[in-house]
Specification:
The chain has 289 residues and is mostly helical. It has one domain (2-7, 22-280). It is 71% helix and 2% strand. It is built from seven helices and two strands. The chain has helices at 19-63, 69-119, 134-158, 165-168, 173-196, 209-228, 235-269, and strands at 14-16, 124-126. It has a two-stranded antiparallel sheet. α2 (69-119) runs antiparallel to α3 (134-158) and α3 runs parallel beside α6 (209-228). The radius of gyration is 21 Å and the shape is elongated.
Length: 289
Amino acid sequence: MILGVLSLLFRRGQVPIEDDELATLEREGARGYNYVASRGSKRARERLWFVLRTLALVLFGWYVAKWSAAGMMFFILYSAVITVVIDGLRYYLASRWVQSSHSREYRAEQMLHVARSVERGSQLRPAPRPRPQVLLTLLIAGGCSVVGLPALWYGLSSLGWIDADVVFGQTFMPLFMLVIGVGRIARAVAGIQYVKASTVGSRELCLNSDDALDVYALALLTSVLLAVGGPVAYLAPFLVLGVRIAYRGYVLWWMRQSLQLFSRRVYGASPKSSGGKSTNWDDEGDDEL
């Protein structure tokens, strides 16, 4: 998740703010703020709009094409699988850019927490979370996609709960899946080539497999509604998307509130915190952030 905001859902202990953290905030605060305000906010908005577009397609399938509840859920899961495939391509073709991007996210997150706490007059800050293990997340999501979903399909089909009509019996769904899958992968490959044309660290390339894991977990939790059948079953796909939209909206709100405090701290209390250097991390290459 951008800036590790998934950790906001869990209570973390408070730890004292170290002197070196304050020194880092004074020295690099402007660059950190600009990074979050530009790249972080943009990425948060993009991830929210992606879920909203998925909801729009599902609403079209439900209202116009008369998709079944299981069909809509399958379409949502298919979208998550494409996300994992794209992440696999990103990591395979540009792992250095991916690692650099997530490292910068992590550093920006720590700086943001310190700035929020200091601006609120506190000497404590939330305990740092472990550094993100993007490859581990990708491997788990890949395992769920390659092993877990086919196993689930086999089990449900053996019980007679689903069959091929879940996909091929839904009007427009095979066409949507083909166009969306090919289009997203093609755009992702073009994006990877665009990023690789630059030095490591000057452009962002982040993975979204954590979103796919969110979808898998929510789909599993709401699958009982599909088993009930009838009108109740239609709640399942909309609950999955509704929870994700609410979370993504919260993320965007949290970032905007945090940026206000960050800006006040950096430009109000220390307007020259960049020390005369560049106020953006874009041109720093592959340094350790």
